[in-house]
Amino acid sequence: MSAGAAGPDRRIIAATTRLTRVPYVPEIRLQQADDPFTVWEQLEKEAGQVSLPPPFWAFPWAGGQALARYLLDHPALVAGTRVLDVASGSGLVAIAAARSGALSVVAADVDEIAVRAISVNAAANGVRVTPVLADLLDGDADGADVVLCADAFYEQDLAVRILAFLRRAHTGGARVLVGDPGRAFLRTAGLCRLASFEIPVTIALEGMTVKQAAVYEMTAGS
């Protein structure tokens, strides 16, 4: 299912973020918030709701920056392929795949505002990404050649579902790449580390200014 009406969500995004370059991936610009707590309050006020999901889409998280950097540095990984980016958030990784020559890129998320932000961010970077509002984790990769996932292992139940989905995608023939900054619930058995990066992050989000993030590929033994 694709995103709904554009107007309200676009206004919320414009009111709570600004278009700026991603620290470790300066080739890409995203609508980014200055402070997580302020933007969350603003979002609820703009939307007229007292409870919205955290605005994960409003920040370039370390795992996504690492995976996006790796794709831009190794475009042959996705060039000419059909790509699926799950738990896409801002769309950073999906945009990097599109810039790297992917034939098509689908970016899926369960947050309506995130799906709209993906559309806004893709347009700002002059690339074509198809945003999808859906929970795909009980299915498979739906024909994708490459499946990407970053910064999705911060809750145990979600991590279990995502890893099971990624294993099914891999078993079905997709290449699976993961970006993660050492979250507690990523089980790295069956994952081969391809690279690691020192990623600039904000103290408000991570309690530090630099965080190490790795890029992994799922292997045949998974």
Structure description:
The chain is of the alpha/beta class. It has a single domain, classed as Vaccinia Virus protein VP39 (Rossmann fold). Helices cover 34% and strands 26% of the residues. The chain has helices spanning 7-16, 36-47, 62-73, 92-99, 112-124, 156-171, 203-206; strands spanning 18-22, 25-32, 82-86, 104-109, 130-133, 146-150, 175-180, 191-200, 210-218. It has a 7-stranded mixed β-sheet with strand order 5-4-3-6-7-9-8, sandwiched between helices. Strands 1-2 form a two-stranded antiparallel ribbon. Strand 4 (104-109), helix 5 and strand 5 form a beta-alpha-beta unit. The protein is globular. It starts with 6 loop residues before the first helix and ends with a strand. 47% of the residues are buried.
Notable characteristics:
9 strands; 26% strand; seven-stranded mixed sheet; two-stranded antiparallel ribbon; Rossmann fold; alpha/beta; 222 residues
Question: In a nutshell, what does this entry contain?
Answer:
The protein has 222 residues and is of the alpha/beta class. Helices cover 34% and strands 26% of the residues.
Overall pLDDT, averaged? 89
**Secondary-structure element order, as H and E?**
HEEHHEHEHEEHEEHE
Biggest beta sheet summary: 7 strands, mixed
Percent of residues in β-strands:
25-35%
The parts where pLDDT drops under 50 for at least 5 residues are: 1-6
DSSP, total strands: 9
* Head-to-tail CA distance between termini: 30 Å
Instruction: Give the number of helices.
Output: 7
User: What's the CATH architecture name?
Assistant: 3-Layer(aba) Sandwich
Q: How does the helix and strand content classify structurally? A: alpha/beta
User: How many separate structural domains?
Assistant: 1
Kindly provide the name of the CATH class: Alpha Beta
Shape: globular
Helix fraction by DSSP (H/I, runs of at least 4): 25-40%
CATH domain topology: Rossmann fold
Radius of gyration, whole Å: 16 Å
Order of strands across the main sheet: 5-4-3-6-7-9-8
CATH superfamily: Vaccinia Virus protein VP39
